[in-house]
Amino acid sequence: MMNNQEVQRQFQAAKQMAGQSGIIGVVYLDVDPARGSLRVKFKVTPAEEQNKLVISLAYVVDQMSQAFGLQVITREEKNEEVNNV
């Protein structure tokens, strides 16, 4: 497992890369632990980066969930369900 310094180093590297990309915006988190609900809304510019960011972060949540032994079911914009096994 990574130590705290390694996590911090990776976090700083990611921040630096993001800063160089010119991405700016806001992330809204709607958290309801009692219901097991976490919703995330992005308002990012440039607009073409928003899609990439959402896909990348969905992948991270998917992988973390699977690491906890959870089955992941992803519902995309067209209300199609995709099982990621």
Describe the structure.
The protein has one domain. Helix content is 46%, strand content 31%. It has helices spanning 4-21, 47-67; strands at residues 24-32, 37-45, 72-75, 81-84. The strands form two sheets. Strands 1-2 form a two-stranded antiparallel ribbon. The radius of gyration is 15 Å and the shape is globular.
Strands of the largest sheet, in order across it? 1-2
Please mark out the parts with pLDDT under 50 across 5 or more consecutive residues, or reply none: none
List how many beta strands DSSP finds.
4
Q: What is the count of helical runs? A: 2
What portion of residues is helical?
Answer: 40-55%
Average residue pLDDT: 84
Please identify the structural class as seen in this structure: alpha+beta
Task: Give the biggest sheet.
Answer: 2 strands, antiparallel
Head-to-tail CA distance between termini: 24 Å
Shape: globular
User: Please, how many domains?
Assistant: 1
Strand content: 25-35%
Tell me the radius of gyration: 15 Å
